[in-house]
Amino acid sequence: MKSILLPTDFSKNSENAINYAMALFKDVNCDFYLLNVQKASSFITDDMMVMSASATIYQTIIDVSKKSLANLITKIETKYKNDKHTFHSVVDYDNFIDSINQLTINKQIDLIVMGTKGATGLEKVIFGSNTVHVMQRCVAPVLAIPDGCLFKDLDTVAFTTNNVTLHNVEELKPLKKLLTLHNSKLNVLHFGDIEEGSDRKKRNKLFLKTYFSDVTYENIDSYSKDLYRTLEEYVHANNIKLIAMMREKHTFLERLFNRHPEEDLAFNIDIPFLVMENSNVS
Question: Going by C-beta distance under 8 Å and a sequence separation of 6 or more, which residues neighbour residue 236?
């Protein structure tokens, strides 16, 4: 039984991520935890006007959220009718990241699936701020689903690495499970930040080739300075359905979060990002 956390603010974006998760794990026994995190500032004046005299702001917020979650779960169950899936609603009144991490630990969450708005016009952002914070600070792997992204298949997956940090079996389990579940081909895209002949790179290549021996393995070395355009072109040319990467220092992910104003911001990738924690950062 897998435990999947689905943060939701009841937006179309978050509902789309939930639909993606339903399709991605349609053949897997799953406990889905739908989490809505509230704060007092989100409670508008009009709502306060209709409170009963005995109700507290806190209780009213929680009650509204619980009702919305119950309605959402009913909608999902009616739409998918999947006996393999069980749903749980969780309402919290806390800091967003703290709430996610507490639930992740208490319920032994295997994966967080959440929506992200992605690059939008003049905002020049790749991920929404909540998604960025979850990717950087949460204690479980995160699958970010771009707005409007629909699940079709997962036949080809790209894993980006710079081989600076050695990988291990435990941290790559989320990726391996997805590859096995969907019989996916894996392409390893190496961004060359260290010397071609380094011992660490050789060890990483050997480890990846051995660990993913039951899937199609293809290694692509890229030393392009424009990593964004290189990845975008590669994704489109190879029909990549998901990009996986590690959450660690000196990675492509870190560069995505810290883009410089002079860099080309025409980054247009509308497929999910799987971000996994590196437990052996060095």
Answer: none
How many C-beta neighbours within 10 Å does residue 115 have?
Answer: 28
The C-alpha atoms of residue 63 and residue 74 are separated, in whole angstroms, by 17
Using CA atoms, how far apart are residues 27 and 22, in angstroms rounded to an integer?
A: 9
Closest CA to 116 of 147, 139, 93, 92: 147
pLDDT tens track for 180-193: 999 999 998 877 65
Look up the pTM and report it: 0.85
26 CB-near residues (< 8 Å, 6+ apart): 80, 82, 84
How many other CB atoms are there within 10 angstroms of residue 129's CB atom? 10
- Summarize pLDDT for 156-211 with one digit per residue, the tens: 999 988 777 778 899 999 999 999 999 999 998 877 655 555 787 788 888 888 89
Measure the CA–CA gap between 196 and 227, rounded to whole angstroms.
17
